[in-house]
Amino acid sequence: MPFRFSNLWRPTVLPNLDSTARDHLANERTFLAWARTGLGFVGLGVALEKFAHLGVALENFAHLSAESAISAASAASSSSNTASDTLPAPPPLPPLVKQQDGRVAAITFVGLGGAVLAHGTIRYYSTMQRLMNKQFAPSTGGVALLVLVSSGLTLGGLYSVLMTPGHFSLHAVEREHGKVGH
Description:
The chain is mainly α. It has two domains: 20-138; 140-182. Helices cover 71% and strands 0% of the residues. The protein has helices spanning 6-9, 20-79, 99-132, 141-163, 170-177. The protein is elongated. The mean pLDDT is 75. InterPro entries: DUF202, IM_YidH-like. It is found in: Cell membrane. Keywords: Cell membrane, Membrane, Transmembrane, Transmembrane helix. This is DUF202 domain-containing protein.
């Protein structure tokens, strides 16, 4: 019998024997948890992409503001004939998030979110079929894959936080206390 999308909206009525209803409701709750997790990853990816654009815009604004302040100060100093001919350039600002890094992280999280949504959907329908046949198979592969990917993202995020110059990084600790390991 070919699959029809109309079957998705007309559920099969099952007799409520033993724990049938409870098992199917638990399957639905599990699917909703997978969907919520996937949508969370997608939302995080979109937020990271927008934050990367905001970081670049803030950097540009700060440099433009500093340059206009210097030019205004040098114009005022030349009209008042002070001894100061030139003012020092503003120090470079540390980037909040490099646009390239933000894009890679955004694509990673959006892709991961889509994969989690796909896995949750496939898992829901396969579990529903098995429950209808009075069978059950625990999800070991999906859980293992999610743990591996989440661990990789955690290590990548930790590396990014510790290796980016700023207040909370290994670079800041090295500047404050000398080289680590000496």
